[in-house]
Amino acid sequence: MTKPAKRTQKDKIGIYIKRQAWILFILIIVAWTIDTIWLHSELTVAKSTAIGALLSFLTQAVFAFFIFWYTGYRARQHIVSQLYRGQMAKWLLTVFGFALIFITVQPLSAPALFIGFMVMQISHSWMLWHIR
């Protein structure tokens, strides 16, 4: 009998990103279903929720990319600097993403946009709590 291979932190993050993609997909389907059956807003709510969730997903993926650019004990100084760069890139993308969405996407439901974003943020925090 062979031992299962030990998962590295990069592997765990890869699994986490796949799970986040599934949550994104499920959130879009739920928003579409609620919009179609109950709200009848010509998919404005579903579209807004999906855009907010996608913005959150993309900013988290960029952050993960920055953090795991370097790995290993010898790269610890680079990892710390990448943590700051990743956080800065994430926040800049979030601010400019929201600005771009509000300027270009019409019609838009702002509450649905923020709900989609926040659901993904909460799921991100919940998954990170489980990874640790």
Automatic annotation (TrEMBL):
Transmembrane segments: 21-39, 51-70, 91-108
Membrane topology: Multi-pass membrane protein
GO cellular component labels: plasma membrane
Domain of life assignment: Bacteria
Record's subcellular location: Cell membrane
Main location: membrane
Coiled coil: none
UniProt keywords, alphabetically: Cell membrane, Membrane, Transmembrane, Transmembrane helix
Name of the protein described by the UniProt record: Putative ATP synthase protein, subunit I
